[in-house]
Structures are given as structure tokens and as C-alpha cells.
Amino acid sequence: MDISSSRLLNDQSRKEFGLLLLLDHLMRYDLLQIERSNIEEEIFKIEGIVEELKKGFFHSEEQEGELNFQKKELGQARDALTQIVKEMDENEKFRINIALVEKDQEKLEPILKFMEERSILTVGVDNYYKISKKGLELYSQLVDQLESYLMYFDVFAHVDLENGIFGDPNNDLLEGNQWTDLRVAIAEFKGMDPFRVVFLAMMSDEKFFENPDWKFELGLGTLFDELEQIVKDQVSVNDLSYEDDIGIVNGEDVIRDILKQGESLAKERIKSEIDSGKKLENDILRDEQVITKNYSW
To answer: Does residue 297 lie within any of the structural domains?
Structure first.
């Protein structure tokens, strides 16, 4: 593999990452809006049940119990709605108004226009961009890829090559030269796109949104320059070759052994999360190949 050429981020990937970033940004508000609609529907349903249970002068003990239960459910639903409305107000900043794009963020207009033409976005009567059904499906794919990354690649972010151990984010101070990031090397060894892996890593860590000028840089096409440089600077499979008393140990043999150990550790960590109740077994993605699935724009 020609590392110098394979570690250049092409225009197609830059565009895809930009679309996904905007999609994620807009969903910070739209997801709450969907949740609000679901809660309002639930409230309407429970109110109907309560009104029906109230009918009549005499109620059995069982009917009174059911009425009290439904009243409690109604109260909880209303409290949840109040909280959602509060969060929506706080997340208003994640909405994008078409007038604002035309005035202050005009460089984003071609990207948003493309998303609208591909039915990923629509423009509401209030002139704000909204995620369409197709957009929700694409976002669901992104969420699957993020979860897959965390399950199967994050374990390779900190590897102590000298001592043959993997860093534990819960117990180890993951700083200094002790640790080597092998996520790019693992991706290349598996024949996967290293840029997508690093993009998912940066998305998971909220790195892009830490930049206050991220929308401007996205419009200029420079936002992902840092991502490209990170991939270029990462250790490659060939870099892992070394010489011992017997002779030269091939980098592929080294990465193959690290991969085997890392996958075993990842499974242990997933099992621990299931056992502790942090994750349900049905939520676990069985195959990291979900990361390789292309988006249908």
C-alpha cells in the first residue's frame, strides 16, 4: 500500500463528512422535537383514558387503582414534556434559518442546498431547516457507525507497545509517550477507510464543535484539514516492524497480534457493560463492518 497517496483526504470524503456533521448538528434540536411530539401524543392518549375512567358515580377499588395509576402516568408525562420544552429552548442555537444562511453563513448554502435537493432536509414554514424522513435514516446510520467505532476501535487509541498493554480510560492517565494510537493502522490493516475512523473518533469526542468557526471553515472546505493531518501523522503498519535477537519482526505480524488482543479486550468491555446494565445485549452491534457501509445521498 502506498501510504503517502492513501493518506490524502479526497473531495468526496470531505463533502460526505460535512453533510454528516451538519446532519448531526441539526439533529440536536430535531430529535427533541420528535420526542416532544411523541410525549404530546402520549399525554393526549392518557387524558382520554383518565376521562373514561372518571365516568360514573361509583368505582370499584380496581377502577380507582387504575385511575390513580393513569393520573400518575399523566403527571410524569407532563413533567417530561416540560423538561423537553426547556431543552428545546436551550438547543434553539442548533437550528439553521435559511435567511441567516443567505446573510451570515452564505458559504454553507451550497451544502444545505445539496441536502435539500437530495430530500435530506426540508424548509419549514418558519424558514428553518428540518430533517426529513430520509435524513433520519441517514442519521440512524451515522449513530450505528459511531457506536461501532466505540465498540471496536476505541480500544486501540492507547496501546503501550513496549509492555504490550491497552490503556484503560477509566483507570489510566492516558498521557505522555507511553501510549501509541493504532486506530489508523488497524483500519488500514483491515482494509477500512482510516479517514472515516478518525472522523467518527472526532465526532465522538465533539472535536469539530469545539471550534467556534466550524461552520465558516466547513464552508471554506478547510474544516477537515486537521483530520487529514492526524491520519498522515499516525503510525502505519510498516512502522511497527522491529528487529530482535532472532531477526526482523514484520509489522503485519505485530498488528495482527495487537488486533487479536484488542478484539478480545473489546469483547470483555462490552460484556462488562451488559453485566453492569449500562448496555442491553440487543443494543450491541455484532460487526464493525457497519463502518464501511456507504451513505445513499
So the answer is: no
